Amino acid sequence: MRALENLKILDFTTLLPGPYATMILGDLGADIIKISSPSKYDLVLEQEPKINNKSANLLWLNRNKKTLALNLKKEESIEIIKKLIEEYDIIIEQFRPGVMDRLGLSYDILSKINPKLIYCSITGYGQTGSLKDKAGHDINYLARSGIMSFSGRKEEGLSLYGTQIADIAVGSMNSIVGILAAVNYRNLTGEGQYIDVSMMDGLVPMNSLIGSQFLAGGNLPQREGELLNGGSNYDFYRTKDDKFLSVGSLEPKFWKEFSNTLDIDAKDATDTSAKDEIKEKIKSKTLNEWIEIFKDKDCCVEPVLDLNEVLEDDHIKERELIIEMDVDGKKIKQFASPIKYSKSKQEYRFAGKKIGSDTKEILENLGYSKEEIEKMDKNEIFK
């Protein structure tokens, strides 16, 4: 038995936050129907490379999901949704505030049909507040959250992250937590509820230790001025072959091992008088040489790997973090779900489908006749 196989979810999301959340829920067994319009451009799902005219992103993010093509501006589409929520009693959507209301698909409207409905909305700035209607992307939420004010280097300034922190670490994960908590509440009370997930809201507490210290009366944090942002010897260091080594030797026992290995004289990780010496010593050898030197040392020193190196890393293979999926007879690699279970293991049943692949089957299961479906098609309900 899969952990979430009793959950039935309608997914109205696009781009990354919602699709990643529902993919994780689908891997755990939830029955997901992704609903969108094939004629609506989705930046993420249209990116190259493509395999048999389907993008790698689509094949990954739509994994384990049925897909239903609907033009939500058509009244017939709204009626289909209202029928579906009698069984699919969890909704996740990612429009700006008010859009689902204007379509006739708000929580207030749909919860009257099914009071057990759990309805999760993901937005950049939330359903209330002066910024609620503003458009935004990961970079904007990071900028407004305070995090970027003490990230980067003093001289060079800010640098873009290589991943979408607000989207996945906040939008996706907080939606998953919110939905599963609401499911437990429904199990206890029999009642559904509305969930407001804001990516901006979730980033503010991710100011983390530095932010907590500031709130307690500390100084305004500065770039390269704190323990974990370059203001100590905890940092990245360039090697002879222009690669990088990460040094996380904070605790005394780790620092002692690290400093003895490099033969440097510094009392602890906060003693930055030794930082230039550390830079010079690490720059004197290649990354592979340092890997060999530190392989048996217990001091939190690791190489910065590129994705090719990640794929070949024994630990990654042993943890089964990369899986293979069949796409029209061709094997493609995808990221696996990251949580390990002893019993209710994830299942990767099929790669992502194009929007509309299951439209006919879903409608037939709802009781629509072949003639009714053909009429809807002519009326561009599935556009």
Report on the structure:
It is a single chain. By secondary structure, the chain is α/β, with parallel strands linked by helices. Helices cover about 35% and strands about 15% of the residues. It has helices at about 15-25, 55-60, 75-85, 100, 105-115, 140-145, 165-190, 200-205, 210-215, 250-260, 275-280, 285-295, 305-310, 315-320, 360-365, 370-380, and strands spanning about 10, 30-35, 50, 55, 65-70, 90-95, 120-125, 195-200, 235-240, 245, 300-305, 320-325, 330-335. Strand 1, helix 1 and strand 2 (about 30-35) form a beta-alpha-beta unit. The longest helix has 25 residues, at about 165-190. The two termini are about 35 Å apart.
Determine Rg (CA atoms, Å): 25 Å
Q: How are the strands of the biggest sheet laid out side by side? A: 5-2-1-6-7-8
Helix content: 25-40%
DSSP E strands, number:
13
Structural class: alpha/beta
Q: Can you give the mean pLDDT?
A: 97
Largest sheet: 6 strands, parallel
Per DSSP, what share of the residues sits in E-state strands of 2 or more residues?
15-25%
Low-confidence stretches: none
Distance between the termini: 36 Å
Number of helices: 16
Order of helices and strands: EHEEEHEHEHHEHHEHHEEHHHEHHEEHH
Coarse shape = elongated
